[in-house]
Automatic annotation (TrEMBL):
<dbReference type="Pfam" id="PF00149">
    <property type="entry name" value="Metallophos"/>
</dbReference>
<dbReference type="InterPro" id="IPR004843">
    <property type="entry name" value="Calcineurin-like_PHP"/>
</dbReference>
<protein>
    <submittedName>
        <fullName>Metallophosphoesterase</fullName>
    </submittedName>
</protein>
<feature type="domain" description="Calcineurin-like phosphoesterase">
    <location>
        <begin position="6"/>
        <end position="197"/>
    </location>
</feature>
Length: 229
């Protein structure tokens, strides 16, 4: 059996998928991982049809823009929910990937400097009960990270953690992402959101992992570090 093609990660598209298609043509990946903020001109199944028709395993997480309008929500969450890795895991190109999409919001949970920061609401149900259905827009909730999302992701094991938010190796990163990487025991964190390439590292007692932040519409062939001994 031939070796599978590589895993290709793609930074926030914001409507630009040309670099992705070029990279797919050049590298023939077996799987593609998109880190959110699609701003899609059409439903994802239409936009990504060339990849899906080629048998490429396409997975995605939400960013913060998927909740900006009902149209964008419908074209992402409403069109390919089964391929979302938000709070889930999947084996892509032979490696296990765990996903946590969306962004933190101060009115819900703000674990920037302290991963154990007390949230205002742990679940979406709590938020809706507190504010009422009409005062809690479901679109905004869909791209907000609640502790329940973190906890669901933390039940998985994996080699890679893919997030929209960054860990603390980035100036605007969050301690909760570091804590999730440690809990899952990943070797690599991939993130988007900040639109500039970023390389860093998270350390914890007895281990640690590499960090790779993707630029806007940046394709990157995933390079998984060797396990630490």
């Amino acid at each position: 059996m031939s070796n599978p093609g590589p895993l290709l990660a793609y930074g926030d598209p914001h409507g630009d998928f040309v670099p992705l298609f070029r990279a797919v043509k050049e590298h023939s990946p077996s799987a593609v991982l998109i880190v959110g903020d699609f701003d899609p001109p059409a439903p994802l199944r239409v936009v990504l049809a060339p990849l899906l028709e080629a048998g490429i395993d396409v997975r995605w997480i939400p960013g913060n823009h998927e909740g900006d309008s009902q149209e964008w929500y419908d074209r992402t969450f409403g069109d390919m929910p089964e391929r979302s890795l938000h709070g889930r895991s999947a084996t892509l190109a032979g490696v296990r990937v765990v996903g946590l999409g969306g962004v933190f919001r101060e009115r819900v949970w703000w674990p920037r400097n302290n991963a154990a920061a007390e949230p205002r609401y742990r679940t979406r149900v709590e938020a809706r009960r507190a504010h009422g259905e009409r005062k809690t827009p479901p679109l905004r909730q869909a791209i907000t990270i609640f502790p329940e999302d973190w906890e669901r992701a933390a039940t998985n094991g994996g080699d890679i953690l893919v997030c929209h938010e960054a860990p603390t190796s980035h100036p605007y990163g969050f301690a909760a992402i570091d804590a999730l990487a440690r809990r899952v025991r990943v070797r690599l964190v991939i993130h988007g959101h900040h639109h500039r390439p970023h390389e860093g590292r998270i350390e914890w007692p007895g281990g640690g992992c590499a960090v790779r932040g993707l630029g806007r519409a940046e394709p990157w062939i995933v390079e998984l570090p060797s396990p630490q001994k």
